[in-house]
Amino acid sequence: METVVIVGAGQAGIQAAASAREHGYDGRLVVLGGEPHAPYQRPPLSKEHLRDGVEDQRLALRPPRFYTDAAVDVRTGVPVTAIDRTVGEVVLADGERVPYDRLLLATGASPRELGIPASPSGVMTLRHLGDASRLRSLAADAVHVVVVGAGFLGLEVASTMRALGKQVTVLEAGDRVLGRGVSSTVANALERAHARDGVRIRLNDSVRAWQTRGDGRVGGLVTTDGRSLHADLVVVAVGVRPNVSLAECAGLPTSDGIIVGPDLLTSDPCVAAAGDCARVIDVAAHVTMRLESVQNAADQGRVIGAWLAGAPARRYAAVPWFWSEQAGRRLTIAGLVGAADEIVTRGDPDAGPFTAFHLRDGNLVAAESIDAPADHMAARRLLSSSSARADGIDRELLADPNVNLRAYATRRAEETVR
Ligand SMILES: Cc1cc2nc3c(=O)[nH]c(=O)nc-3n(C[C@H](O)[C@H](O)[C@H](O)COP(=O)(O)OP(=O)(O)OC[C@H]3O[C@@H](n4cnc5c(N)ncnc54)[C@H](O)[C@@H]3O)c2cc1C
Question: How far is the C-alpha of 18 from the C-alpha of 308, rounded, in Å?
Fold first, then answer.
């Protein structure tokens, strides 16, 4: 009997296992997860789980019976320590060897550290369920919370801590919030929303040194510009590093991610990678991309699930999308922000629904929406319809909040089919 092994029981790994079964794979299917918990979703860890403490079961990626019904052998708390590609086996921390015919690496990413020595207790990062539980318990008696990094994660944590009544300061080394992945229009609107909520954001500033209380807990910090800040709890959210060491030690090419082609296969035709850990290099399209989002992990998991089931590998080509919730606002992004030469706006970023449509050479390449789910869905449809890109797009129509964009997107999609 054939064996498929998936390393990493996260969003990409579990989706790939489910999709392999949906594609008719009836061999042995083993998912090896390094964490002690049943597979769970990460997004609530900085949002409702942190705020309200939703039960761990509600974080589950799949109900427990899914794994028995689909005969997916999920083993948790068993880190994989090596891949022996010469014989086609993975080696577990306890020395057990599990053979594979096809292997998927879905190892995710780990938080970057600040690199400041002697970090006291109460200075932490947030990636895993264990981190979230610890953060919740430390937050219970904290008054002053400092978040280092004004990216998506940092601002979500800041917002949730503020909702819990904490005094929150965010330190950001760059000259604006959300420096990666959103336009300055959206970044500035969200920064103002956080300020209205009472979150203090200090740009061009970071941590120089920690201050430790007598009991070993953090008491404060010295910023790079020399000021002292009081802090009972510090959350460092300065980005992640893809988990590549397993692939690297097995001789697979890596470069800020496990290198895969557009079909998600590594240089070894029996080994694929998907999700946060995978860097897709499409030489023909001059694209190199590694995304950190649920959509990317799940969609890549779906595509590679078919390959795990024995189908030929196929090109991964989904429209990327992402969401974040912060300062009482829901941000959604479709496409990749950054390649635009023109931005068409619809609505007021500070009040009510707003969308910034990003155009390049007259064609839609991305859309950022604040509290505008209908615009976001229409943008995704427009981006996936090739005519929207090929023929250019009607700017006046995009900018007019009275126009039903969904109907326009549907019309464009029908024109593509004809
Ligand atoms: C707090 C938080 C909030 C987020 N919010 C959002 C959001 O609002 N929207 C959004 O789109 N994205 C969000 N994300 C990002 C999103 O969760 C990730 O992009 C997604 O989980 C990536 O899935 P993955 O399967 O690639 O990796 P992961 O979910 O990280 O899963 C990888 C798993 O592999 C395991 N692993 C690693 N190495 C080994 C090994 N050697 N052996 C065994 N197991 C191993 C890891 O422990 C981990 O459990 C958030 C992330 C965090 C941390």
Answer: 10
Cα(113) to centroid(ligand 1), Å: 17
Q: What is the per-residue pLDDT across 121-135, written as a single tens digit (0 to 9) for each? A: 999 999 999 999 999
Classify domain 113-238 by CATH number: 3.50.50.60
| Weakest mean pLDDT among 53-57, 261-265, 408-412 | 53-57
Q: What is the residue-wise DSSP string for 118-131?
A: SPPBTEE---SHHH
Q: Kindly give the distance from the C-alpha atom of residue 10 to the centroid of ligand 1, in angstroms, as a whole number.
A: 6
* Pocket-forming residues, ligand 1, beta carbon under 6 Å: 7-13, 32-35, 42-43, 45-46, 79-80, 106-109, 126-127, 153, 243, 246, 275-277, 292-295, 297, 322-324
- Averaged pLDDT for residues 187-209: 97
Evaluate whether the domain defined by 3-110+241-308 bears CATH number 3.30.360.10.
no
* Alpha helices (runs of H) in 86-151, residue ranges in sequence order: 129-140
Ligand 1 atom at minimum distance from 8 CA: 34
CATH 3.50.50.60 spans which residues of the chain? Answer: 3-110+241-308, 113-238
Whether the pTM exceeds 0.85: the reply is yes
How many angstroms separate the CA atoms of 294 and 237, rounded? 18
Rounded distance, CA 162 to CA 180, Å?
23
Query: Which residue's CA is minimally distant from atom 12 of ligand 1?
Result: 293
Query: How crowded is residue 261: how many other Cβ atoms within 10 Å of its Cβ?
Result: 17
Numbers of helices and strands, H then E, in the chain: 12, 26
- Ligand 1 atom with the smallest distance to the CA of 274 is 26
Q: Give the residue whose CA is nearest to atom 50 of ligand 1.
A: 43
- What are the pLDDT digits (tens) for 102-114? 999 999 999 999 9
Assigned CATH class of 328-417: alpha beta
Residues 6+ apart with CB under 8 A from 122: 138, 142, 217, 218, 231, 232, 233, 234
What are residue 303's phi and psi, to 5 degrees? -65, -45
| Residue located nearest, by CA, to atom 31 of ligand 1 | 10
Kindly report the protein residue whose alpha carbon is nearest to atom 35 of ligand 1. Answer: 8
- pLDDT tens by residue, 130-150: 999 999 999 999 999 999 999
CA of residue 352 to ligand 1 center, whole Å: 32
